[in-house]
Amino acid sequence: MLDIDLHHAFPGFTLDVRFTAPPGLTVLFGRSGSGKTTIINAVAGLLTPDRGRIAAGDWVLLDTARRLRLPPHRRRIGYIFQDSRLFPHLTVRQNLKYGAWFAPRGAPREPFGRVIDLLGIAQLLDRRPGALSGGERQRVAIGRALLSAPRLILADEPLAALDESRKAEILPYFERLRDEVNVPILYVSHSASEVARLATTIVALENGRVIGQGTVADVLADPAVLPTGAREAGAILTATVAAHHPDGLTELDAGGTPLFLPHVAQPPGTTLRVRIAAHEVILSRDRPQGLSALNILPGVVHDIRPGDGPGTIVALDTGAGRLLARITRRSAEALALTPGVQAHAVIKTVSVAPLDIGAGTRVN
After folding, report:
1. Residue 52's beta-bridge partner residues?
2. Which residues sit opposite 215 in a β-bridge?
3. What domains appear along the chain, each with residue ranges and CATH number?
4. Which among 17, 43, 63, 288 would be 20 to 30 A from 87, CA to CA?
5. pTM to 2 decimals?
């Protein structure tokens, strides 16, 4: 458990946060200017706050009350930036060895060959950064951080500078990092799709304050703590690949309920996280007939949360898990939706974006 308690005043902005980052991948989630990068710079030792404490058990990085501040080079932190910051005059192999050079003697470390295999960069070792794509450079940057034998990895919006195809390339490697490497990760993002794919825990920030913390399923279901409110609300389901069909669809088993998606390049039996955006869900009291939508999930209304405008969020418990639907208040009233009422969720197969589907662990 990494305990973080920080207070720091800038002109026109004050950071005042207290939270715990448990093992796994903890996402600092919020709008630009909410304090995310300030926090990880303090953890890295690049910023000394006015007062604060950062510690994991007896590993104390900062304690201003005791005038203790571990220098950055002794914190054993791997930092992955938005841009890869590789040395352009060195090959990929030399950049990776540079990270290993900083590993303390005798410290537990990932074997060089395993890191190469984990990130799929064996064919890049003799190239220089200028000959790599953006996604390839970020994979090398991840490897360099891992090979420094870190006790903690910091990632400051590492996908922000990449286009959608490059993000799709890199996300599976962060999933593997989360699931296969025993190093906690503090990850900065303002993308709901990234958070849904990667997070074990979310710390939601606004104006330098923590406004919510919990599992990815709980936090992304709460419009009050999302950067853009109800527009980013959605449910995170855990499902298993059941079968691939000749017409290009993949059938998932979501708690005993079939869920059809465009082809997912994972073998049967693979556990997936699937984010279903609330604005993509339609509700019906009776089971609809004659629709093109393949996914019709019966359920029971759990609760209804009116927003500030004409919209409302309806939480529906289904066999696949709890879904959210963003509909108008008028529609909710016309359907006479109240807790305990039976309803059906309708989800178009093609409405689930590829970036909202990822391999990984359970979300709650």
Report:
1. 6
2. 201
3. 2-234 (3.40.50.300), 235-359 (2.40.50.100)
4. 43
5. 0.85
